[in-house]
Design goal:
The complex is a heterodimer of chains A (about 200) and B (about 120). Chain A has about 200 residues and is of the alpha/beta class. Helix content of chain A is about 40%, strand content about 20%. Chain A has a 7-stranded parallel sheet with strand order 3-2-4-1-5-6-7, with helices on both faces. Chain B starts with a strand and ends in a 5-residue tail after the last strand. In chain B, α1 packs across α2. The chains are: A alpha/beta (about 200), B alpha+beta (about 120).
Chain lengths: ~200, ~120
């Protein structure tokens, strides 16, 4: 078996439009500023790779996998790309952004099986749409919550304190559910949170 | 859940607006022509000589976020847009794109030299 150089895989996942790329951008900028060695793999279901183009402006190398979802139709391309990156001696971290329609828990299982590295799973929840998503996409959101190591409740700056309390209350929790952190990623992420994710 | 997506591009020779305004107006118009509270998002970008402007929005609320790299000093632009939604047919996405193009091209005097659906061939 080939040597694995990369030590860490961080996945930022969540439903379409939850703010994953904005969170990724904040992490990417911090990685560049800190002189770390990282690469990004971004997956988009559409035929125009928008998020990858934006993430390239962070200065990190970006691999785009588009025109399908990496949890199913383009999983082979994804695993091949990831395997190649883990052997790059110049990298210590790989950031992954699955498409917003991905079955992320299934994807994480495949990564751990085929790549053999643990994945830090950062879930981004869209606070203003959470009530609707918990009704319309209940199974998907619940499975995303069950897989998460870190949960970011994003766009909380658009809610009143009462709406925020109500939104936090509706999140289904289990015994091992991690703490839920309020964020407004468009305004930047707290330094402590970035350090916690990248440590 | 079932998702459908459609990607589209426009090559615009000249128009009476900055690329950021074009992206913002297009996304807002597309959102207007889609059923309220549909689950998914609209995202895209415009490329100009010295940079790119990126934009995206969900429909809840329809609020466009823009990020621009570089300064626009005139000239043609290429605009790319992708719609990904759960529970909406491709025909509904295509209708929204065509109506938005009609509305914005007329309103801002676009000279469109090419446009159409964008398909990735693997």
């Amino acid at each position: 078996m080939a040597l694995i150089s990369c030590q860490k895989i961080i996945a930022v996942y969540g439903f379409l439009g939850s703010g994953k790329t904005t969170v990724m951008m904040a992490l990417a900028r911090d990685i560049v500023a800190g002189g770390h060695r990282a690469a990004v793999v971004v997956n988009e279901a559409g035929d125009v790779p928008v998020d990858g183009k934006w993430l390239m402006t962070s200065g990190l190398p970006v691999k785009e996998i588009f025109g399908g979802c990496i949890c199913c139709s383009v999983m082979g391309d994804f695993i091949t790309t990831l395997r190649a990156l883990t052997k790059e001696p110049s990298l210590d971290t790989i950031l992954i952004e699955p498409s917003g329609m991905a079955d992320a828990p299934q994807l994480f299982g495949s990564i751990e099986k085929h790549i053999g590295l643990p994945v830090l799973k950062v879930l981004v929840l869209d606070a203003p749409r959470l009530s609707l998503l918990l009704k319309a996409a209940a199974l998907l959101i619940r499975s995303q919550l069950e897989a998460a190591d870190i949960i970011l409740l994003n766009k909380t700056d658009t809610l009143t304190p009462d709406q925020l309390a109500e939104t936090r209350h509706m999140i289904p929790r289990q015994q091992n559910t991690p703490a839920i952190l309020d964020t407004a990623a468009a305004n930047g992420l707290p330094v402590a949170l970035i350090e916690d994710i990248l440590k | 859940m079932n998702f459908n997506n459609l990607s589209y591009y426009w090559s615009i020779d000249s128009c009476r607006a900055e690329p950021g305004e074009v992206v913002q107006a297009l996304i807002s118009a597309i959102a207007k022509y889609l059923p309220d509270k549909s689950l998914g998002h609209v995202k895209g970008y415009a490329v100009f000589e010295d940079g790119t402007v990126f934009g995206s929005s969900t429909l809840i609320p329809p609020e466009v976020t823009l990020h621009q790299e570089g300064n626009y000093r005139g000239g043609g632009i290429e605009v790319y847009m992708t719609l990904i939604f759960s529970g909406l047919e491709i025909g509904t996405l295509r209708h929204a794109l065509e109506k938005a193009t009609e509305q914005e091209a007329l309103g801002k005097n676009w000279t469109i030299v090419d446009k159409g659906e964008k398909t990735h061939e693997r």
